[in-house]
Amino acid sequence: MPFYSKLGHIPQKRHTVFKKNDGGYHYEQLFGTEGFSGLASLLYHVNRPTQVKEILESINVKPERVQGEGLKSQRLKGFDIPAINDYLESRVPVLFNQDCTISLASPKTSLVSYFFKNAAADEVIFIHRGLGTLRTMMGNLSFSNGDYLIIPRGVIYQIDFETEDNRLLVVESSEPIYTPSRYRNNFGQLMEHAPFCERDFRVPKRLECVDERGDFLIKIKSHNTIHQFNYATHPFNIVGWDGYNFPYAFSIHDFEPITGRVHMPPPIHQTFQSKGLVICSFCPRLYDYHPQGVPAPYHHSNLNSDEVLYYVAGDFMSRNQIQQGDLTLHPSGIPHGPHPGAMERSLGQKETHELAVMIDAFKPLSLTRDALAIAQKDYYKSWI
Ligand SMILES: [Fe+2]
To answer: How wide is the angle at C-alpha 301 spanned by C-alphas 296 and 304, nearest 5°?
Structure first.
């Protein structure tokens, strides 16, 4: 996140001795995204963060690709995935390429029996339904319906849910997730024409600093494998940090839509960017105000990206029979547009209450076997 933040206690000068009150020293860690030149923070640990006791069995979680579905538009009935107690097991990858994995999840219970770290991807967790607290080594973030939780690679976390009916959309990106560069000035500050500003981002509030020794299981995801590391010290043992790299939350309800006299293209909905994808927020807004304007989107050939839409709430104006939790894929190379009757329905409408998240992936996405199990048969023929 390109703004400076600070939490807890840190020494006056970086890379200098930082003593504990009872004697002994704190241990400094540079925590960055892209080597020593990307966004980074300096963390101060009570215990060295390197105390591996044992490496246990690893688990292959490589998504299984379905053959023969290329270039076919898909509708996945997202709420048909099973609700599962365990957080990691609840995550069902449905689409993936070399840059990202898109999963749906319905975890029923909190993640408390182990810690999780994604070591190879930034995670964006969109909370469709759910209330709780993301607990991380860098502090805690409360969340509710409509929140994006952005968790940079390497952050160790747990999740407390206050609810049992939780619905998540999870994007893992092998390249870091940022806000769109066209909304930022040379210094990284969001400019006046951006649909959000720094005030809309929630940073970690409360540090849990646990000075405990014992057995602490961290499940570490790296390149389609879950590695299980048993550490000798509690991973939440940071007394303070400062810098530019930290988890944060942004509510889709704080996205201020950009509207126009005639139809505005999807980039106006953009919320996040990465090298391999963009994430956009379609929010309730006034429609175009040209007297002859057509509020429904025109047909378009997205020749450079596979377009994924996740439907959150409201009537989605361009689609017939779409339900909450559905996810559609419109692959690169095949023109798509409003369903029959949708364009006509949109004429004269003043506003929309649609709420959806779009992911445009720049490399072709593969469908998984789990996705095929919740796919609507023959969705690709639904424009006839
Ligand atoms: Fe589209």
So the answer is: 125
**Rounded distance from Cα 362 to ligand 1 centre (Å):** 14
User: Which domains are present in the chain?
Assistant: 29-63+84-252 (2.60.120.10), 255-381 (2.60.120.10)
What is the rounded CA–CA span in Å between residue 148 and residue 116? 18
Which amino acid, 384?
I
Radius of gyration in angstroms for the set of CA atoms belonging to the chain, rounded to a whole number: 22
305 C-alpha to center of ligand 1: Å?
Answer: 10
Span 104-122, average pLDDT: 97
Per-residue pLDDT for 122 more than 90?
yes
Residue 295 CA, ligand 1 centroid: distance in Å: 14
Alpha-carbon gap, residue 99 to 274, rounded angstroms: 9
Q: Is the pLDDT of residue 195 over 80?
A: yes
Q: How far is the CA of 240 from the centre of ligand 1 (A)?
A: 44
| % the chain with pLDDT above 70 | 100
Cα–Cα dist 304/327, whole Å: 20
Label residue 229 by pLDDT band (50, 70, 90): very high
Extract the tokens encoding 261. 């006299």
Distance (angstroms) between ligand 1 centre and the Cα of 294 equals 15
Q: With a cut of 80, say whether residue 167 has pLDDT above it.
A: yes
| Cα 384 to ligand 1 centre (Å) | 18
CA of 267 to the centre of ligand 1 (A): 11
CA of 215 to the centre of ligand 1 (A): 49
Angstrom CA distances, 124 to 158, 161, 169, 173, 245, stand at 15, 17, 8, 8, 14
Nearest 5°: CA angle at 74, between 71 and 78? 145
Distance 265 CA to ligand 1 centre (A): 9
